[in-house]
Amino acid sequence: MKVDVRDNNVDQALRALKKKLQREGVFREMKARSFYEKPSEKRVREQQEAVRRSRKAARKALQKEGLLPSPKKKEPAAGARRPAAFG
């Protein structure tokens, strides 16, 4: 995994690295490996994840066909807006 640092902006590079690690699931795996998980618990968890994925895929397919309404987009709160200029 590689992240380029542009204009000595290390903070931006760290954010990009963190986002890549999050997308790859590294943090989730580190959390899962911090404690021992019994094989029976692992099977149950993986089965639940598979059910969740299949339900999500079915819901997306129904939304694509127009049989279910698509989710409403969240609008930012009034105080959460960022100023136009940072200066």
What's the N-to-C terminus distance? Answer: 34 Å
- The averaged pLDDT comes out at 88
Q: How does the helix and strand content classify structurally?
A: mainly alpha
Order of helices and strands: HHH
Annotation, overall tally of beta strands: 0
Residue share in helix: 55-70%
Task: Give the overall shape.
Answer: flat
* Number of helices, where a helix is a run of at least 4 consecutive DSSP H or I residues: 3
Give me the Rg, rounded: 20 Å
Report on the structure:
- This protein has 87 residues and is mainly alpha-helical.
- 57% of the residues lie in helices and 0% in strands.
- The chain is built from three helices and no strands.
- It starts with 9 loop residues before the first helix and ends in a 22-residue tail after the last helix.
- The model has no long low-confidence stretch (mean pLDDT 88).
Layout of secondary structure:
Elements: H1 10-24, H2 26-33, H3 39-65
Précis, in short:
The protein is mainly α. The protein is built from 3 helices and no strands. The longest helix has 27 residues, at 39-65.
Keywords:
mainly alpha; 0% strand; 87 residues; flat
